[in-house]
Amino acid sequence: MEKTPRRQPKVSIIVLSWNSYDVTRDCLLSLRKIDYPAFEVVLVDNGSVDGSGKKLAQDFPEVRVILNDKNLGFTGGNNVAMRDVLARGTDYLLLLNNDTIVAPNFLTELVHVAESDERIGMVTPKIYYFEPADKIWYAGGEYVPWKTFPVHFGLRESDVGSYDQTKEVSFVSGCALLVRVETVQKVGLLDEIFFMGYEDVDWSMRALRAGYKAMYVPASVVWHRDSYVTKQSMGFAKRDFYNMRNAILCARKYLPLRQLPLFAFSMSKYVGYVTLRSLFQADFKRAASLYSGLWNGCWTAIPEKLPPL
Fold first, then answer.
1. Which of 126, 152, 237, 306 has the most Cβ atoms closer than 10 angstroms to its Cβ?
2. Do the beta carbons of residue 155 and residue 192 sit within 8 Å?
């Protein structure tokens, strides 16, 4: 008697786009080539003003397109898509940056590891820079609350096989993040207070504290145009604001009080470095954004409740 083939879990891939037709097109073209059969792509146009959302909808009729009226940030934009997907039903959600290109087997490898243990709530691939394509951007990560920023293992290193072991991590990058639906239902959606940056750190921490494991899967590969949208549409001053603001907000959520002096020391070193660099370059706008983010992070109220599912 022939065995009934095992059902392959459905994956809903969520791609967020904002005024960036070309890179989003390249990302969607790479998704057409993946070998995993049970998936859909949900594209969220996050309030673009260049007509890119409607053009992408025309060029990729197989993609489910959501057009937001305004830019809701990384958190709000992805939450819109996740609510849409959860209402229709799926097994996994995959958040994928629009400035990425994926390997054909990237999703197959992620699902394989995720399905190996029901305690695994999140998995993430090995991520290279787009150029040069053999330089590592992320090979697993770690979040230590007293440090200013989460750590990317292997950052800017040439890949010589040092990061080829599947392993547990404490920080899963939102650049490419597969999450089990049950995990989202238990820990909630992205916290929209972050807008952009550190929402993946927060999500990772909530999943780990709920008893799930997060795994790095080097057999799955993605290439990333780092900070493309920031460079093209936003500018580094705004990025500096959110990096500073959200680092402090995240520390306020997870930093043990006894580690506050360590965090203050780490933060002061970073602020001093960026201040001197900005002054040396006469980039006073970036310096002002840094201190605005510092003030905002200290005094912004953190909501007690997460956005509803």
1. 126
2. no
Strands (E) across the chain are located at 11-17, 39-46, 64-68, 92-97, 100-102, 120-129, 136-138, 141-142, 151-152, 167-168, 176-180, 213-224
102-146 tens-digit pLDDT: 999 999 999 999 999 999 999 999 999 999 999 999 999 999 999
What value, to the nearest 5°, has the Cα angle with vertex 260 and ends 257 and 266?
155
Residues of the chain by 3-state class (helix, strand, coil), percent to 5: 40, 20, 35
- pLDDT tens figures, 165-221: 999 999 999 999 999 999 999 999 999 999 999 999 999 999 999 999 999 999 999
Measured from the Cβ of residue 32, the count of other Cβ atoms closer than 10 Å reads 11
Q: Cα-flanking dihedrals φ and ψ of residue 120, to 5°? A: -80, 120
Count how many Cα atoms sit within 13 Å of the Cα of residue 120 in the half-sphere of its side chain: 23
Q: Which DSSP category does 231 fall into?
A: I
Tokens for 203, please give them.
């999500």
Q: Are 247 and 198 in contact (CB under 8 A)?
A: yes
Angle, CA of 191, 196 and 197, to the nearest 5°: 90
Q: Which two tokens stand for residue 277?
A: 């660099």
pTM above the 0.85 mark? yes
Angle CA 87–115–217, to nearest 5: 105
CA distance 248 to 55: 38
Respond yes or no on whether the N-terminal peptide bond of residue 132 is cis (omega within 30° of 0).
yes
